[in-house]
Amino acid sequence: MANIKSQKKRNITNEKARMRNRAVRAEIKTATRAVKDAVAAGDGAAAIAAAHKACKLMDRAVTKGVLHKNQAANRKSGVMKLANTVATAEDIAGYKAPAKKAPNKTGAPKKAAAKAERKKAMEEAQNAKEANRKKTQKEQEAAAKKREAEEAAAAAAEAEAAAAAEAEAAEGEEAAEEAAEEAAEE
Question: What is the second-level CATH architecture of the domain 10-94?
């Protein structure tokens, strides 16, 4: 058993690849068996269809690295030779490749939709933030005006109090002067 971390990871990836390769090879064998069964039954159209399917699977196995390209070419040649023993010219001409499947809506379209949704949500959040900012600014302006009015009222009150204090001081001085004059007269 490996005790080096990188080798442990390698063992895991190798096992995954082995299982994938095994599944691909089994699929190729099944497709080849379908060709042999169609030939045994004498059905030329089914044999050609199965041969094309088997060839397609072999090509895909080459792109995945499961089969060598020359090995796949040899196998495709054998499968087509076998299918052509039963197939007639009409069977070959009448073969239509199956329609391609529509791709699943995953990947790019899904990502684009998610991106558009995120962008819309961000714009909504930005608009809400801007509205809150304006509301806060109005509240701050109103509070500043109120504070100024209160300060002006306080200043006016202080001015009145100072004026009243001065008036009292002036009255007090006048009273003191009168008292001093009366005292001087006596």
Answer: Up-down Bundle (1.20)
